[in-house]
Amino acid sequence: MLAKTVVKRLKEIVGEKNVVTDKVGLFSYGYDGTLLAGEALGVVSPQTTEQVVEIVKLMNEQNIKLVPRGAGTNESGGTIPSENSVVISFSKMIKIHEIDTENFVAIVDPGVINFDLQVELEKKNFYFPPDPSSYKASTIGGNVGECSGGPKCFKYGVTRDYILGLEVVLPNGKVIQTGGRNFQSEPGYDLTRIIVGSEGTLGLVTKVFVRVIPIPRAKKTMLAIYEKIEDASQTVADIVAAGIIPTTLELMDNLLINTTEDFTHAGIPRDAGAVLIIEVDGYPEDMDGQVKTIGEIAKKTAKEFKVAQSAVEVNQIWTSRRSAFGSVARVRPSYGVNDITVPRSNFPKAIGGVLKVAKDFGVQIGVVAHAGDGNLHPLILFDQRNKEETETVHAAEEALCMMALDLEGTISGEHGIGLVKKKYLDKEFTPASMEAFRKIKFSFDPTNRFNPGKIIDL
């Protein structure tokens, strides 16, 4: 429990309505997109950088840790409150300060919802390519913290590729700015890239300089339908091998097809083993050639290939994909989402590995993937109330991570490490690399005040 004097001071800094200390109010800040939970001493919601600085200084004086939080869609436990911590919520820092189309940059607060930024950018015929499936809820600050990806990351890259600079409050209460409007790399150490993906363990982001780009003049959306998921995975490898870079190359297996159809009624055949959602963009005169080439590759193994003929049809297809995670609640009450990534050439082997894990552990796994960049999200379905079943799921999750490493991949492509993947980090990196991580954390946060226990321990 926070001392009354601390609560009083927090209310003086941010206003009475922006401090939560009652048990009921704290409950919703104790969990995220995982099945983990914690309990904070309090929640404080600043609206300015100056308020963040004052909060950091006060917490330092009181020896209380800070856990940053955006929308709470985190899939790795990175926003779970740790012991003796206050959650600092950025949900009230929602200003879009500037959209500068001449220099291809937008300057925004960390609490701005990804979708809300897209809406404002679209009015100027621009957009921000990183668009995770949670983009209607997730914040730009959260996307920065996890280095989120999304369906367009095959062609356009992930969040780190679109962050030109950051304003950051350090654990000692000082404010720094990394980068800025300039698209060129900043001189000296690239602090922007160190902080992007650091999950709030190094500093609190209070302003983001986002690179934005013009909306493509044309796009085409295709749907390839397969008897077997292995056939779909081979098409992915063949498209990549042919040197074609679609905007998106997304995969869903039979389980996800059926659970999303229950919700969206998009008309995807329920007996299909898998589907690929393929999209290309660019100049209008380039569309027909790309669609023809992709169609020829897909038809080698697909039982059906079609091009969406209307905006309504495109929206139906994408609604299916974006609702995939939530739709599995129709089958089982709980799921564990993985975020393994392998080199694109090894994608078919990774699909085979997922099927093998499901068989070996006797678990039900639905597969959805950013297939173009080898990023798989195997969803292991189970009932968390069954302790034995839960333990089996955790063992299967570890097997999936080890399988990805065996295929020269990584344990996390865009969901971060947080608490969930922390125990596997030393399987991917050498002792020397792990020590380098610890030294970076220590140099920014020697007393371990920001998001302690996440990613790595000092």
Structure overview:
With 458 residues, this protein is an alpha+beta fold. It folds into four domains: 86 residues, 2-Layer Sandwich (Uridine Diphospho-n-acetylenolpyruvylglucosamine Reductase, domain 2), CATH 3.30.43.10; 119 residues, Uridine Diphospho-n-acetylenolpyruvylglucosamine Reductase, domain 3; 103 residues, Alpha-Beta Plaits, CATH 3.30.70; 105 residues, Alpha-Beta Plaits (2-Layer Sandwich), CATH 3.30.70.2740. The protein is built from 16 helices and 18 strands. A seven-stranded antiparallel β-sheet has the order 15-12-14-13-17-18-16, with helices on both faces.
| Mean of residue pLDDT values | 95
The largest sheet, given as strand count, sense and whether it forms a barrel, is:
7 strands, antiparallel
The first-level CATH class of the largest domain is given as Alpha Beta
Helix content: 25-40%
The CATH architecture assignment of the largest domain turns out to be: 2-Layer Sandwich
Task: Indicate the radius of gyration in whole angstroms.
Answer: 22 Å
Number of domains: 4
